[in-house]
Amino acid sequence: MEERVMSKNMKLWLLVINCLMLGIGNCIAPLTNRLYSVKGGKRIWLMCALETAGFPFLLIPWLISYIYRRRKYGPGTNMTSISPRLIFYSLVIGVLTGLDDLMDAAGVSKLPVSTYSLVLASQLGFTALFAWLLVKQKFTFLHINAIILLTAGAAVLAFNSGSDVPTNESKGTYVVGFLMTLGVAVLYGFVLPSIELIYKKAKQTITYSLVIEMQVFISLSATILCLIGMGINHDIQAIPREAENFELGKAMYILILVADAFLWQLFFLGAIGVIFCNNSILSGILISALLPVSEILAVFIFGEKFTPEKGISLFLACWGSISYFYQEAKLDKEKKQEQVAGDENQFRDVPEIVLQN
């Protein structure tokens, strides 16, 4: 494992960097999606493809990682190290991600960003459930409490959806958007622990450069799936016409698409990077814990309503996330105390061994 060649401080910095990437992508990418939709963009498959089409940006960190390893291990260092087995798993995860992207693009185009973000709060609960099933993650009372709170937060929106239907959309469209977004939470809640399971079961050393390579194949597979959908739906031919009619102009249209692709790639790389440095649960925690940022940005940028139902849902989402953070910090403290106690016992045994000799 890369831990043997990476200091604790460097691993901590790597974790911080991936948390920042996940946070920036998670908070801002939905806003660019919504901006595209409210200003005249109607191509769902295009939005779907953009969520993974930014994988060429990964060539930059991949190259940086290669230069670092080459300097450390010499000119014989290979630029790629992914095995056919991991390529296959990455392509499968990519197909699931492509389906997730389709539902996500459809959901965010039919819902206010604030509602969309709050429904996604339930993703942490699904991540926890699949982490328990796939990687045998252990849970305490506070873990279960957080799952219940986050699920209840999404349920509040479901049962009070009628008060939040945008004036230019039917209630049926709103419900479809809600269900699509909930599907995103379930599917990506499955994908995150699946990636952690792949790391654990891989028959080769998992390094961060390998994580980047896996993300390239995941994104490539998902993008191909979305491009097929774009071809069937004639989205490719419609892009020039849509750009000409975009309310903010053609140049802004292109800028929004490029920014959207880049931001989503930040999110995905950050998510699997956090799994590499820690686990899938932490990825889910961060996605839910950053919801207040999306809420504030959506209200100020798009002037969306902040209804009482959203307030209750946001409160439950924050409470659930805090429960997770508190429990993880408590477990980490207990682990360190046990380690210190073990070291002390080991030192006490030394004089006895010397006397026996």
How does this model look, in words?
The protein is mainly alpha-helical and 357 residues long. Helix content is 80%, strand content 0%. It is built from 14 helices and no strands. It has helices at 8-38, 44-50, 59-73, 84-110, 113-119, 123-134, 141-159, 171-201, 208-232, 235-245, 250-277, 280-289, 291-302, 308-356. Helix 4 runs antiparallel to helix 8 (171-201) and helix 6 crosses helix 7. The longest helix is centred in the last third of the chain and has 49 residues, at 308-356. The radius of gyration is 22 Å and the shape is globular.
Characteristic key phrases:
single chain; 357 residues; mainly alpha
Topology at a glance:
Elements: H1 8-38, H2 44-50, H3 59-73, H4 84-110, H5 113-119, H6 123-134, H7 141-159, H8 171-201, H9 208-232, H10 235-245, H11 250-277, H12 280-289, H13 291-302, H14 308-356
Helix pairs in contact: 1-11, 1-13, 2-4, 2-9, 3-9, 4-8, 4-9, 5-13, 6-7, 6-8, 6-12, 7-14, 8-11, 8-12, 9-11, 11-12, 12-14
